[in-house]
Specification:
Layout: E1 2-4, H1 17-39, H2 44-67, E2 70-72, E3 74-75, E4 84-85, H3 87-106, H4 116-124
Antiparallel strand pairs: 1-2, 3-4
Helix pairs in contact: 1-2, 2-3
């Protein structure tokens, strides 16, 4: 178990109360922005992705408020993965990956031009039934 006083990978360590509460405030603002985006999400994937990011961020905020740091306890260093993290970090990461996939594959860059997914299906699909 590791006490992470910073953000991802220990960056921006908050070793004093001002920095700690600054991180809490910053994370709450970001979670609020994503939560307001979540309320207007049109696709299920967007909603799931944003929900994971907001939930993970709020989980880390709770840790930081109660303990002054985030409790990181998942250690896969035996598998040559050097970072220690927690479930909230995992939710944020999975949510961010899903959000990127959603934006790249299912969002039209210009109305009427189709999505990235439609382009992939047209380019690599097998016939008209795919």
């Amino acid at each position: 178990m590791v006490w992470n006083r910073g953000i991802s990978f220990g960056l921006f360590r908050a070793d004093n109360d001002l920095a700690r509460w600054g991180l809490v405030l910053g994370m709450l603002i970001i979670a609020g922005v994503f939560a307001s985006w979540l309320r207007t999400a049109e696709r299920r994937l967007t909603g799931v992705a944003l929900g994971l990011v907001v939930g993970g961020a709020l989980g880390n905020v709770v840790d930081r408020i109660i303990h002054g740091a985030v409790v990181d306890f998942l250690d896969f260093s035996g598998l040559y993965f050097p970072f220690v993290f927690n479930v909230a970090d995992s939710a944020i990461t999975v949510g961010a990956v899903l959000l990127a996939a959603d934006l790249l594959l299912f969002t039209e860059s210009k109305p009427g031009e189709g999505t990235g997914w439609a382009w992939l299906k047209a380019r690599f699909g097998r016939g008209s039934g795919s």
